[in-house]
């Protein structure tokens, strides 16, 4: 359906799968948090989306925050 950075959306009827694509551990950084927020804002405007399934590629759903991110951005500002 659509891609927001490392977040892909796939529509299945009235259900949308929101998949983080940063395997193997899907560490959160400012870019991923922003991509998730953008994806969910987009879905909030779609009448055909009634439910969201949050999923992730790799070995773990998420191993937490990426404290070694090169961007230098704080995860939450």
Describe this structure as you would to a colleague:
The protein is an alpha+beta fold and 77 residues long. It has one domain (2-56): 2-Layer Sandwich (GMP Synthetase, Chain A, domain 3). It is built from 1 helix and 4 strands, in the order E-E-E-H-E. The chain has one helix at 30-44; strands at residues 2-4, 7-12, 15-20, 51-56. The protein has a 4-stranded mixed sheet with strand order 1-2-3-4. The longest helix has 15 residues, at 30-44. It is globular and about 40 Å long.
Which characteristics define this entry?
single chain; 77 residues; alpha+beta; GMP Synthetase, Chain A, domain 3; 1 helix; 27% strand; globular
Topology, element by element:
Elements: E1 2-4, E2 7-12, E3 15-20, H1 30-44, E4 51-56
Parallel strand pairs: 3-4
Antiparallel strand pairs: 1-2, 2-3
């Amino acid at each position: 359906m659509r891609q927001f950075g490392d977040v892909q959306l796939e529509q299945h009827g009235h259900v949308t799968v929101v998949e983080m694509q940063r395997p193997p551990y899907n560490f959160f950084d400012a870019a991923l948090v922003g991509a998730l927020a953008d994806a969910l804002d987009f879905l909030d405007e779609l009448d055909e989306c009634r439910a969201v399934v949050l999923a992730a590629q790799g070995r773990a759903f998420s191993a937490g925050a990426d404290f070694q991110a090169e961007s230098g951005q704080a995860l939450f500002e």
